[in-house]
Amino acid sequence: MDKYGKLADDPYEISLTFVLERVLYELDSRESTEITDIVIESRGKREDQTLAQRYNELLYKGSSQVSSNRFVSRFNQEIFFKRKSENDIGLQIADLCAYPVARHVLYPTVPYPSFEVIEPKFRKGPKGINGHGLKIFP
C-alpha cells in the first residue's frame, strides 16, 4: 500500500490505473498503434470528475509502472462517461464479467462455469493470468 500512497484509499482510482496498465500491455503485445478510447460507467458528477482527474494524471504523470509517454501514445486525451441507462454494450459486458471474476478471486478453488468461459480471454504471462490479466490488490 505504501507504493500507491493516497491512491490506495480509492478503489475506483486504483482500479482505473490497473485496468489502463493492462490494456496498454495488451495493446503493446499486439503491436497496435491505434489510439484507444476509454469509456467508464458514470457514477455521479463528483465521482466522474475524480476519475477524469486521475485519468489525466496518468496521461501526464504516468503510474508507478508506466510512463506518461506510453499512456499518451495509446489513449485518447478524453475519457468518456456513459450512464447505465444508455445501455452501452461494452459496459454491459463488463458488468456480466464482474461477478464471475469476483467469485473466482474470493473462492479460487471452487469451480465456477461462468469464470471458466471468460478466463481464456484474460491476458496471460508465464504463470497464467495472475498479475497480468488479473491483478488483485493489495
UniProtKB/TrEMBL annotation:
Q: Which Pfam families match?
A: DUF3800
Q: Which InterPro entries match?
A: DUF3800 (IPR024524)
State what protein this is by name: DUF3800 domain-containing protein
User: Organism, per UniProt?
Assistant: candidate division WWE3 bacterium
